[in-house]
From TrEMBL:
This protein's UniProt keywords: Lipid metabolism, Oxidoreductase, Steroid metabolism
Provenance organism: Lachnotalea glycerini
NCBIfam families recorded: EF_P_mod_YmfI (NF047420)
Signal peptide: none
Name of the protein this chain belongs to: SDR family NAD(P)-dependent oxidoreductase
GO BP annotations listed: monocarboxylic acid metabolic process; steroid metabolic process
GO molecular function: oxidoreductase activity
Similarity comment text for this entry: Belongs to the short-chain dehydrogenases/reductases (SDR) family.
Amino acid sequence: MEKKTVLITGASKGIGYDTTIKFAKEGFKNIIITGNKSIEKLETLKHNLEEIYHCNCMSFIGDLGKYENVELLFDKITTLYKGIDILVNNAGISHLGLLSEMTIEDWNHIISTNLSSVFHCSKLAIPYMVHQKSGKIINISSVWGICGASYEVAYSASKGGVNAFTKALAKELAPSNIQVNAIACGVIDTQMNQFLDEAERASLIEEIPSNRIGSPDEVADLVYDLAKGHQYLTGQVIKLDGGWI
């Protein structure tokens, strides 16, 4: 039975969902999950964690791009668990379209959801980790944060920010035995990529040396691996893309 506490943001579907199930299957009993709009899916996940895996699960609904919501989240965490040992910053959204046609509101929404939420959650998680002299922060990023993508400028910028954030914070927290790493995902079979039709998917797969699209559970496996060990591995942006980029 794993006594450590893990917080997974954006847990209602995709990578966040599979990551949550992975930690539950591996014996984690204190699991905190968040979502924003998929309230019913999040509550179903919470029910399954409690009934199937016998976890002590706390769920939270709110936009983590807003600092006041993250303060509320951590107020509850402090009351129930004192703090968290592992933070998985997974919450994120995408936006397709020309930058010149993007609204200011859309830009701010992408940046706050994908980047500011990482800052908010990390800021409030760090004091407990520093006090414990241990902790893991794992950020879910994208290969577009490394090389950029046409028609996804805002998304690329937000994930590039996550990558730089990861490298810098890792140096800051290494003396406290806290490891900070990011996973730069390639094409993963999630709802975010469901806009691709069959021809587009086939064309994309041809570009990927591994000749397939990745699955959310493969990301979850890597998240768990980073969370459980590798004390000397920090400040890394690990590409998980089948050799694509």
